[in-house]
Task: structure prediction
Amino acid sequence: MKKLGIVCCIIMLCGMFSCKHKEGEYHSLKEKIEEEGKHYQDPGISSEAYIGDINTIEIREGTHTFLIPERKGQIKSYACTECHSKPLAQMQNEPGEQKAHWDIKINHANANAMNCATCHNGNDMDNLHSLTGNTIDFNRSYQLCAQCHNNQVEDWKGGAHGKNIGGWAKPRAAMTCVNCHNPHEPQIASKWPARFNTEKVKERK
Ligand code: HEC
Ligand code: HEC
Ligand code: HEC
Ligand code: HEC
Result:
C-alpha cells in the first residue's frame, strides 16, 4: 500500500512537471506540428514559377484538385478527324486503302484483353472511350488507365505515384500517366545510373 502511494506520488509529480513545459515544448506531436507549421503557411510560397508556360488543365478527383498538363496540343496526329472523317470500318474497307499507324504496336496487356478498340472509338476518333462505352477526353486519359490500374491512380491522386511539377506548394501540378508511360507500351525502360562511381573516383584525383 505504501509502495503504491509512492508510485502514485511520482506519477503525479511527473505529470505536474511535464505540464509546466518550457518554451518550445508541446503537449503532443499534433500540437507541435500545428504550432510550428504556422510558420510555413505563408501565402508567398507558390509552385507557379516551376509550372512556367506548361499548358495545364484543372482536374477534380474526389477530395483532390490539381493541375495536369494538357495533351491534345502535344499529340502529333491530333485531330484524328483530319483523316478519320468517316467510321473506321468504312475506311478499312475502301479499295486501295493504305495502312496507317504501322509504328504503333501494342506491348501492354495481351491481345485477348486489349486491342486498339479497347481505348479508341472507330466512330469518334477524337475521343477515347471506356470499357463500358463512355466518352473520355484525351486530356483526361488517366480515367482510361484507372479502369485497370486503380491502385496507381489512387496513389497518383495523393501524390505517391508519378511526379509533381515544381513542389507541394499550391497550385499543385502533377504529370499525368501518359507523360511517363506510352499507353501502347507502358513499360519504363531500365536505365543505368547517369554516371558510375568509378568515374567519380577518377575525377577526384
Ligand atoms: C494521316 C491520316 C490519319 C490520322 C491523322 C490519324 N489516322 Fe488513324 N488511321 C488512318 C487510316 C488511313 C486508317 C485505316 C487503315 C489502317 O487501319 O491502318 C487508320 C486506322 C486507325 C485505327 C485502327 C487500327 C487498326 O489496326 O485497327 C486506329 C485505332 C486509329 N487509326 C487511331 C487514330 C487516332 C487515335 C488518331 C488521332 C490521335 C488517328 N488515328 C489519326 C489514318 C489516320
Ligand atoms: C490502353 C489504351 C490504348 C490502346 C489499347 C491503344 N491506344 Fe492509342 N492512344 C491511347 C492514348 C491514351 C493516347 C494519347 C496519348 C497521349 O496523350 O500522348 C493514344 C494515342 C494514339 C495515337 C496518336 C499518337 C500520336 O502521337 O500522334 C494514335 C495514332 C493511336 N493512339 C493509335 C492506336 C492504335 C492503331 C492502336 C492499336 C494498335 C492503339 N492506339 C491502342 C490509348 C490507347
Ligand atoms: C483494359 C485494361 C487496361 C487498361 C485500360 C490499361 N492497362 Fe496497363 N496493363 C493492363 C494489364 C492487364 C497489364 C499487364 C499486367 C501485368 O503484367 O501484371 C498492364 C500493364 C501496365 C504497366 C506495367 C508494364 C510493365 O510491364 O512494367 C503499366 C506501366 C501500365 N499498364 C500503364 C497503363 C497506363 C498508363 C494506362 C492508361 C493510358 C493503362 N495502363 C491502361 C491493363 C490495362
Ligand atoms: C513521373 C512519371 C510517372 C507518372 C506520371 C506515372 N508513372 Fe507509373 N510508373 C513510373 C515508374 C518510374 C514506374 C516504375 C517502373 C519500374 O519499376 O520498372 C511506374 C510503374 C507503374 C506501373 C507498374 C506497377 C507498379 O506500380 O510498379 C503501373 C501499372 C503504372 N505505373 C501506372 C501508372 C498510371 C495509371 C499513372 C497515372 C495515374 C502513372 N503510372 C503515372 C512513372 C510514372
